[in-house]
Design goal:
The chain is of the alpha+beta class. It has a five-stranded mixed beta barrel. Helix 7 crosses helix 8, helix 7 crosses helix 9 and helix 8 crosses helix 9. The longest helix is centred in the C-terminal third of the chain and has 14 residues. The radius of gyration is 19 Å and the shape is globular.
């Protein structure tokens, strides 16, 4: 079974990523938090994979953070929660917040997640309360989200006195446009965005 996938990110959508590894494009279902952590299309990405096999389909579910994969696997162990619903649950609430709600029997908070009714929330609490860690470790993504050139651009902008968060946002927009390839082009494009 596939447990880890590293390759070029061909496309990404809020619930799907297509990763090319060794000439093969893998269609991976992802959660919104994983989507938010993915680099721009065309960059290298590494995903922790849960391979789900049924008689009629083999599906891949990918996560940037190992803790999110662990939580996904705990969720699908609950009767009545399949992989699709587990992805919806992970997209509907931050992992540490969900663990807190389950451990403190907060059924009302869990039912705010789309697709989770009172019975499912109660089952989640009953079946997972003692199986979850105190907190879910939120680690940094396992691969750098930006290239060396992009890091150089950020460093230059910070040295010029720009806030790193603002520079990162402007850089992300420039990278998405894909026109700037060299350091000079990228730096000038980001600088002009920050000056607006």
């Amino acid at each position: 079974m596939i447990a880890h996938l590293r390759g070029k990110l061909l496309a990404k959508h809020p619930n799907q990523a297509i990763v090319e590894a060794a000439g093969v494009g893998y269609d991976v279902t992802i959660s919104v938090p994983t989507f938010s952590d993915l680099p721009a299309s065309g960059n290298e990405v590494a995903l922790h994979i849960h391979t789900h096999v049924r008689e009629d389909v083999i599906a891949l579910y990918g996560f940037i953070r190992p803790a999110e994969k662990m939580l996904f696997e705990k969720l699908i162990s609950v009767s009545g929660i399949g992989p699709k619903l587990a992805i919806t649950i992970l997209s509907g609430m931050a992992a540490d917040e969900m663990v807190g709600a389950i451990r403190s029997n907060d059924v009302a908070r869990l039912t705010r997640i789309p697709g989770i009714g009172k019975k499912t929330a109660e089952r989640m609490v009953l079946e997972l309360r003692d199986k979850l860690p105190e907190t879910v470790a939120v680690q940094a993504p396992t691969t750098p989200a930006i290239s060396a050139t992009e890091e150089d651009v950020l460093s230059a902008l910070v040295n010029l006195g720009y806030q790193r968060a603002a520079a990162e946002k402007a850089l992300e927009l420039v990278v998405k446009e894909g026109a700037a390839k060299s350091f000079d082009q990228m730096f000038r494009s980001v600088l002009s965005r920050l000056s607006k």
